Amino acid sequence: MYSLPAEWYEQDGVVLTWPHQDTDIAPFLKQVYPIYLKISQAITQRQKLVLIVYDSILKYEVKNQLILHKIDLEQVIFMIAPTNDIWIRDYGIITLVNSQNKLKINNFLFNGWGNKYKHHLDNRINSHLINKVINPEVKTESIPFVLEGGAIDSDGKGTILTTKSCLLNPNRNPQFTQRQIKEILLKKLGAKKIIYLEHGHLEGDDTDSHVDTLVRFAPNNTIVYVTCSDKKDSHYKDLQRLETELKDLKTEEAKNYNLISLPWTKHKYNAQGNRLPATYANYLIINGAVLVPTYRDKSDKTALIQVQKAYPSYQIIGIDCLPLIYQFGSLHCISMQLPKGLLK
C-alpha cells in the first residue's frame, strides 16, 4: 500500500519554478532572485535541484547567475516549460511511498486556488516533469480531483492534517460531498485518518487557509504551529482556538502531541495597504537541513530557535523571504520535495 510520507523522508531533490516576467511576482523580480539563489545554494549542497524555466533565454540567464554565485551546476537539472506562476507546492506532483520504498506519483488537478488565478500552464507542469525528469519506473496516476500540496501535511504514519476552509471549500471540488472528499483523500493518500482543523487563517492568504501556513508535523509526534501574542491583532482569537484544537489532538498511540509554537511577526503590508501573510510555519525540509523563512523581523531569531527544537538533528537555515510575501506566499509554497528514487 502506498501512502504519503512525511516531508523529512529522504529526498532526491527539490523542484523550484524560476520567477519570470509573466508571473504575478514580476514587479518584485529583483528582490526575489536573491531568495531563489540562496535556496538553490542550500539545496545543491545536499541534493539535486530541478529548476523549471520558462524558455531557453531564461535558462541561459539563470545558469549564468548560478555560476556567478558558485552553485554546483552538476547538481542542477533544468526543465524548460511555460508556467503561470511560481507556486510549485500547489501544482506539483504529490509522491507516495510503500513499505518497499517504491514510489507512486499522484497527479491531482490544480484550479488556481478555486479559479482565483490563471492556471492552465501550471496544470500541465506535472506531465512535463513526468516525461522529462522523473524515473520512468515510477507509477503515475492522474486523479480528477483538485488538491494542492500546501493544503495537506503528513506525519508519515497515516495521519493527514488539513483545514476545513480549504479542502471542503466549494471552489475546489463542488461535485463531491464532504464524505466523498474524505473517502478520496483516505484512499488516494493511503491515509488512516484525516484531521480537519476548524480554525486558523492569515490575512492576505488567498489559498483559503493552507495548512502549511499554520501547522506542520515534525518527527517524534511533534506539531509546530503559529501563535499570535498580540490581543489587539485580528488573528488573536482564532489562533488561540487553533491552539486549543491542537492540544486536544491525539497521536495514533492516543497520546497528546508535543507542541512547539512559532512566534508572530509585526504587521507586514504592501504598497496598497493590504496585510501580508508572514508565517514561519512555511518552512522547507531538505536532507539534513530546514530552510526557514524570515521577514526582517525581531521574531526571526526566536522562530529559528523554535524550529530547531522540532528538528534537533537538522541544520536550521534562515532565508529572507520578505519579498515573497508581497505576492502572498513564502518558502514552502515555492518548492516541492522529490523523495528518494523519484529522479532519473
Account of the protein in words:
This protein is α/β, with parallel strands linked by helices. The protein has one domain: L-arginine/glycine Amidinotransferase, Chain A, CATH 3.75.10. Helix content is 24%, strand content 24%. The protein contains nine helices and 16 strands. The chain has helices at residues 29-44, 56-68, 88-91, 112-115, 125-132, 164-167, 178-188, 236-248, 300-310; strands spanning 11-17, 48-53, 76-80, 94-97, 103-109, 139-146, 153-154, 159-163, 193-197, 215-218, 222-226, 258-262, 284-286, 289-294, 315-320, 335-339. The strands form five sheets. It has a four-stranded mixed beta sheet with strand order 3-2-1-16, with helices on both faces. It has a three-stranded mixed beta sheet with strand order 4-5-6, covered by helices on one side. It has a three-stranded mixed beta sheet with strand order 7-8-9. Strand 7 (153-154) and strand 8 (159-163) form a beta hairpin. The longest helix has 16 residues, at 29-44. The protein starts with 10 loop residues before the first strand and ends in a 5-residue tail after the last strand. The model has no long low-confidence stretch (mean pLDDT 97).
